[in-house]
Amino acid sequence: MKDFDDFVADVLEGVKALAVGALKDYTQQLTTDAGSFLESTQEKVERWGNALAEGQLTAQEFSFLMKSQKDLAILASLAAAGITAARLKRLRDDLMELIIGRAIGFFAPGG
Amino acid sequence: MAAHLGTRLHWLAIALVAAVSLAACSSLPIGEYSLQAYTNATTLKAETLALVARADEPYSSHAAQVDALNVRIDAAYEFAAGTPNNRLSAEQWRIMRDSDRNLYGGLVRMWRENGRLSSFFLAEAKAQIAEGFDYIICLEANKQSASACRSG
Asked: Organism's domain of life (chain A) (predicted)?
């Protein structure tokens, strides 16, 4: 069983390296993106509120813009979800290649 | 020797089955990168912003252009919706074109109903629509490789 134990250890080491590479900085990026969106929302609401008060925007226009920011939040969330899924998909594909490559190296005749 | 070889092949078979199972069992909600989808998004962003910039003029003067652009945006939505595992991108297009929401579809409805739109409002709404397209473009780009989203 020594071969198999070595195989498992080697695969796990490879998985660890893959996961660190795939997710590196991503959590930080998500947090930064969310923070930027909130900051941008605050700036817009202030600008639109002032424009409404000064008569540059009608109530209908102000309402449209506020709701458009809500729609942008949904688009941003959909993008974040898709980007996460794409990263996981690449990780899954890399993992599959890793397992197959290591398995052939360890167990195939002459490997 | 033969027994040892048999054991190695046995474990090789198990590893291969595990790898194939990993690929088959996890259905992630993300479609393949599509150059067509990326081109749709970037081209339509430019076309949409160019048309929206004219919304301070009478809608009736641009109705035909709006209708033509609507067809192209509908086609982009249908393309996204028809791509396997692509519901996130399709939902983005649905929101962008929906006349009951407040991005491109909603702006066109407002333009049609009001006749023309004010310059200040138009500049702000145009920036919002541009940002919306950027989220669509960013998601498509990230299907190919990890890249940062930038708005502008």
From this structure: Bacteria
